[in-house]
Amino acid sequence: MNVSAWVWGATLVALIAVLAVDLLIIGRRPHEPSMKEAGGWVAFYVGLAVIFGIGVWITAGGQAAGEFYTGWLTEYSLSVDNLFVFVIIMARFAVPRHLQQKVLLIGIVLALVMRGIFIAAGAALITQFSWVFYIFGAFLVYTAITLVKGEDDDEEFKENILIRWAKRALPLSSEFGDGKFRTVSATGKRLFTPMLIVMIAIGTTDLIFALDSIPAIFGITKEPYLVFTANVFALMGLRQLFFLLGGLLERLVYLNIGLAVVLAFIGVKLVLEALHTNSLSFINDGHGFHWAPEIPIWLSLLVILGTLAIATVASLAKTSRDKKRELLSK
């Protein structure tokens, strides 16, 4: 794709405008959205992504559109996994329900900023050093293995060193108040609210997930424009999806296994591509391995979509069986 500066500019303006509307809604009336409201917003954002993909198809062809949809689906599934951790964090710090929208929105903005930085860095690395795909691929395979081995590790949130330092060094209030970062105590002392600690936890979580998501999307497309837009559309509507899914998040017990398969698949795809275009002098004298197969985008989309569908169906089936057994045992 040859994306001009004005297309980048127009895309950024449009996406910032959509995000600004979301910010204004939360800023005007922090609340817990109804199922109807949350469902409407999720449908709106998914519809925007579908329409955007059609636009890519018309202007840049089916290959680029396929890369966008595959990247968006991958990032969306990783973002849902991110929601699990957000749920745990908000439960751990007892964030009031009416303030959870604000926490989610700030978390999504932080994720966008961090992913934007990683996308720029990743694009620069790939342009200069094609061998970076070896590292990206190995990292994704390693991440997949850790997901399978530690699938239940997310049940308890572990405070990192930054959170522990903030709780020890900063004067903290025990009340969230109206959701601001600072408050004034009855004695007139200025204190930080628990909202600041929650934001530190959300921000560090976003950083960790960005480290996973960016190599994954570059395994699908090397076009920075598609990488960026797929990430933005995957994060938009995530706040409303949190309230729409509700207890369903806890029922997706096999999501980590599905994501592990997806990440491992993309990791292997990256390594095969690195072998095919190899330029490292100490590997095959700097020549590519032409026997290394190139996985087409349609196959990537089919594998990712099929894996996530199987993981979702299997999860819901398992939790339904467990619930029936629990009722029968009473």
UniProtKB/TrEMBL annotation:
<feature type="transmembrane region" description="Helical">
    <location>
        <begin position="191"/>
        <end position="218"/>
    </location>
</feature>
<dbReference type="Pfam" id="PF03741">
    <property type="entry name" value="TerC"/>
</dbReference>
<dbReference type="GO" id="GO:0016020">
    <property type="term" value="C:membrane"/>
</dbReference>
<comment type="similarity">
    <text>Belongs to the TerC family.</text>
</comment>
<keyword id="KW-0812">Transmembrane</keyword>
<feature type="transmembrane region" description="Helical">
    <location>
        <begin position="252"/>
        <end position="275"/>
    </location>
</feature>
<feature type="transmembrane region" description="Helical">
    <location>
        <begin position="103"/>
        <end position="125"/>
    </location>
</feature>
<feature type="transmembrane region" description="Helical">
    <location>
        <begin position="6"/>
        <end position="26"/>
    </location>
</feature>
<dbReference type="InterPro" id="IPR022369">
    <property type="entry name" value="Integral_membrane_TerC_rswitch"/>
</dbReference>
<feature type="transmembrane region" description="Helical">
    <location>
        <begin position="38"/>
        <end position="60"/>
    </location>
</feature>
<feature type="transmembrane region" description="Helical">
    <location>
        <begin position="72"/>
        <end position="91"/>
    </location>
</feature>
<dbReference type="InterPro" id="IPR005496">
    <property type="entry name" value="Integral_membrane_TerC"/>
</dbReference>
<protein>
    <submittedName>
        <fullName>Tellurite resistance protein TerC</fullName>
    </submittedName>
</protein>
<keyword id="KW-1133">Transmembrane helix</keyword>
<keyword id="KW-0472">Membrane</keyword>
<feature type="transmembrane region" description="Helical">
    <location>
        <begin position="131"/>
        <end position="148"/>
    </location>
</feature>
<feature type="transmembrane region" description="Helical">
    <location>
        <begin position="224"/>
        <end position="245"/>
    </location>
</feature>
<feature type="transmembrane region" description="Helical">
    <location>
        <begin position="295"/>
        <end position="317"/>
    </location>
</feature>
